[in-house]
Structure to design on (84 residues):
C-alpha cells in the first residue's frame, strides 16, 4: 500500500482479453494481499477465465466453475468508474 495515497497498486502480467467472446484470461488466479482470492478457489497457480460486461461506467466480471470441494460456484465482481 502506498502510505501517501492509501491506495494499493496491483497488476497481474500475461492477461489476455478476447473482445469477441468478452473474456479475460489469466495464467494465475489473482489474489490480493495473499488473502482475498479473485477466483473460485484459493489456488493461485490455477488459470482463470472471466466473462466481462460493460454497462455504462460499470465493469462486471464473473467466473463460474467448481471450487475446492467440487461445488459449482459463481463469483461476480462489479467495478464502478470513478474520477480522481
Amino acid at each position: 500500500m502506498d502510505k501517501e495515497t492509501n491506495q494499493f497498486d496491483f497488476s497481474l502480467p500475461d492477461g489476455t482479453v478476447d473482445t469477441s467472446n468478452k473474456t479475460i484470461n489469466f495464467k494465475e488466479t489473482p489474489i490480493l494481499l495473499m488473502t482475498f482470492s479473485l477466483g473460485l478457489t484459493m489456488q493461485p497457480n490455477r488459470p482463470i477465465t472471466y466473462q466481462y460486461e460493460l454497462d455504462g461506467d460499470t465493469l462486471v466480471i464473473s467466473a463460474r466453475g467448481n471450487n475446492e470441494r467440487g461445488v459449482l460456484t459463481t463469483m461476480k465482481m462489479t467495478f464502478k468508474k470513478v474520477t480522481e
